[in-house]
Structures
1.
Amino acid sequence: MLEFLKRIFNPEPSSVTARERLRLVLLSDHLALAPDVVESLKADLIAVISKYVDVDAAHCDVTFEQQESVVAMLANIPILGMKPAARAPRPAPPVLRQAQDDMPPPMIDTAPASAAIADAPDAPADAAVAPVAAAAPKPRRRRRRRASVNAAPAH
Amino acid sequence: MHTSSQLSAGYLREDPLPAAPPAQQPRGRCIVVTSGKGGVGKTTTTANVGVALASTGARVVLIDADVGLRNLDIVLGLEARVRHHVLDVLEGKAELDDALVSDKRVPTLKLLAASQTREKDDVDTTAFHAMVDQLRERFDYVLIDCPAGIEKGFQNAIVGADEAIIVCTPEVSAVRDADRVVGLLGDRVKITLIVNRLRPALVRRGKMLSVDDVNAILRLPLLGVIADEPGVIVSTNKGEPIALDAASPTGDAYRKIAGRIAGTDTSTPEIPREASFLDKLFGGQR
Amino acid sequence: MSARRIVVTSGKGGVGKTTTTANLGAALALRGKRVVLVDADIGLRNLDLVLGLEKRIVFDIVEVVEGRCQLRQALIKDKRFGEMLSVLPAAQTRDKTAVTENQFAKVIDDLAEMCDYAIIDCPAGIEHGFRNAVAGAREAIVVTTPEVSAIRDADRVIGKLNERGLPIRLVINRIRPDMVRSGDMLSVEDVCEILSAELLGIVPDDEDVIDTTNRGEPIALRAESRLAGIYEKIARRLEGEIVPFTQLNAPNFLSRFLGRKAG
């Protein structure tokens, strides 16, 4: 009788719980058992991030952790500084004479880093990323500017 | 007195928790849960006896000695919280306190998980023994979940224990294997018996060995008898040890076993009875 | 023509490897195949017990490997099957380190010349005993029950077998249709999806298995038992036949009330 009532008020069958727990635990087990895959993933991750920042490759660490309902990758990647190419001044964006209201704003900010950022002290990054995906540069909305011949680069 | 392997292992650092000097504290008991035969309920027993003991306030640590095929974490529902394991501690890659997993449901219970990727041969038995001794200074009970078999995994698991619980099902293979293990343990430890997965209806019909049949061969003090209950499968599915279920007869059996271990329950173990008419009507051995 | 060499393994103990080995061997022998069953669980032997041959053991695999007897002398013929079924028992007073992988593989090679099927009953675990048992095999049957720990261990063992390139087929043992229906047990579909292995057989939980083990009679010999039919189908699938899986029904209200078996 109690089981019947329990089933009314707690509908998720235990087999569903079991399936989900097994999925996560086996994923954790498989990752732990494939150190070569993890090494390749780490190498690829460092290569991608190194396009934008200088990293301390010798002290990079990638681990996987089972969290509540997901297996998450945790990457600890010490950053030594911006890449010189990333710090170079970029050409001014083209002057737009047409009303910009007709066009959607570009999604990614392609303007170079400002002087303020370039002078910032080296900061170690401790990027906790979840779920399994490397951190991508965050897209920022551009503020619309009035058309101007001598527009200063935005940052 | 420490051997060099113990000194190189990282765990012999200062215990960060305040504790009374060892001389004033009674040393915890170390009990290995073993069987020889696999699949008879060692892990379920370790988990549930541990939970039942800790629910009375005792400080309990459960150690999974099944390197490579760990399951104590998943039976307890703590698999998502394991960060480090026994080998990490023995090899100095992690602090003992970082490896101990807490159970929110039972605050005085801790789990020390096994590695899933290494092998039983990787465990340094001497270092394991020293770690168990250290744990006995901090916990009232150290329960060790022994793997199936009688090889290195078994040898590691029994090394620090001075008591053993043999878990045996009423089946000829299990009894035979338990008998072998009793022989191997010899006089070095105090041994008790739990008969698991009894089906009283089959015993009555002569299709299953009785508790007396089992103990006629093993001749051990009986700690408890547990009837086969489908609820155990459900509890493992959910990761909720059945000893936490106040309504379950299996939970009750484990709580009584814990009481007998602690010395607070002096009753003789009951042999479970067959399910009654009403039990069958409502679908279960309740 | 050399025999098929199949290891029956699981990782988890107690899921039914020995029962599966014994009954599959019996079913194949009943179909006229010459079968040798090998107990690789040195130190904790049980294949002899399950088949009721424990009183007939004279020599064991360790004595063969150590040259103290010929291989043929150690084989016990099970008279219930004519000349078709033999057992090579394990030693009881040694442990798994008594035999190396190469020695075990050599024994299986020798056996393969004298039978159609050499089926190896693997011990629990993934250590020495497992490595020995797998050393002689060319195919694997992984046995699991629909329980979380068993599936986790089966997954681990499948990984190990994949490393060795052994083709794998799955037997799901002790399924309880009533519990699957109520959502209290993982289904066959769940297990197959999680383990991604080809299904060879589905064996329901059956209380008669305990009785037959007590008596040392493989259930495959009990023609009236539905399990006999199921093991026969597994044998046929192993031989390459396409055989539909037996429908397992959950017990209805009355059968549970009257205490009858499921299905």
2.
Amino acid sequence: MKGVHVAVSDLTRTFESVHGQNPVHALGPVSFHINPGEFLSVVGPSGCGKSTLMECIAGLTTPTSGRIVVGDVTVSGEVPSGVGVVFQENAAFPWLTVDENISFGLKHSNVTLPANEIRNRVDEAIELIGLQAFKSHYPSQLSGGMRQRVAIARTLVTKPDFILMDEPFGALDPQTRLLMGDELLKIWRASGATVFLITHSLEEAVLLSDRVLAMTARPGKIKTEIKTPWSKDRTTDISSSPQFGQLVSELWGVMREESKLAMAQSERIA
Amino acid sequence: MISRVALMRIAVVGVSILTLEVLCRTGIITPQVVVAPSIMLITLINMIFSGEVTTNFESTFYSALTAILISVVLGISGGLLLWRVNRLRRVLEPVLAAYYSVPVFVFYPILIALFGMNNMPIIMIGVLFGVVSMIVNSLNGFDRIPLVYLKAAQTYKLSAWQITYLIRIPAALPQMMTGFKLTVAYSFIGVIAAEFILSTSGLGYAIAYAYNNFETRTMYALMLLIMIVVSIINICLMSIEKKLLTRRGVI
């Protein structure tokens, strides 16, 4: 792919008033781009419109103004092809087994794949997330971390070249988060996909990404951009390097004020 | 292992049956009023083996199953329609909520006028009894589908029809199952009650016939049959429901 993979220009999103309240200007204007194969994270205080930003890029929400181009398609009203989304909440379908959840997207896509191709891809994905022994389990029988791995595998089997993740490890404990981070880096390297990750953990963002965008409190704009010096075959071991600590505190220095602002905003609502 | 409470429950039923047996056998309750449970059972077994009940049994089951089937199809599609068309829902919701306070049974003459003296009015009474529970519970189920499932569906580019049968209906299944259990019970009540008064076949008709001819034994045997069959159906439905809910992690 030439040049940029994803280009976001002057994106804003305003939520219309409900029951006579003032309309909420949630996001923007923001402009940025993502290079092909890049791992980009977005951090920001709660309520800054990170999830809205992701939903706009994924075509799940229509922006109020601005333009999003993914590959060579302008996003409007539907999810562009080659895009996979991992949601914040537990999105694994509880009525399907692990195996059925992972094969769901392949079985029901408009491109019909031969049965053995589906089988191979699903087996590969299950092996990747290490849930071979839980193939015929239902999500309710799995731990939170396993469930989230299913959600990730379900997205990966469709072989997206652009993966959007909204706080995918939010519900996990810090140790599992680190392990999952390593998994994600492995997957990213193996697939060559472009990754857009939303997280509220500054450490996670610095650890995993090539580049981190820090957002302001609502309405979310891009406050700063930090490039990390990590090589492509990094692991979460870099968290012990002095550079890591330096980058995290640099990021926190920028974010502190915005987080305070966001806290004040939420207190005003409450 | 059966729990203590379950054992107690079985004991209560057993003791009640035994008491009735004793009261009947000692003549405290006369056979004109109630026959002994053992006689009910023996009469029923004889009737089953002589083939006496077969036609009526089939007729009732045919009517009830048809009523249930129609209720389920109408109920789910009705639920979907109301869920989709919010204005219609706002108009109809109070009517649905008050529905079971109306004795719909009184409409049977209209149904006869519409469908004639065959089993259609009976099936329709079964539907009238059963369908609303299916509508209300499907609607409730559709309301509770987490938004994230539908967002995921969008990323898979499913068509509206695929979203309905691949996501909405399976996601709403636990609530639908609650509705279905009630629908089965209500449809049976409707069908059997209708057979009492407007039929020349079916278990309801046979009970009324035996009653009018002072065939107390036959009457109680048929009642027992209905109780047994409905209990078996309920046990099956409950075990299916339990499996479903366990799988979803609800219980």
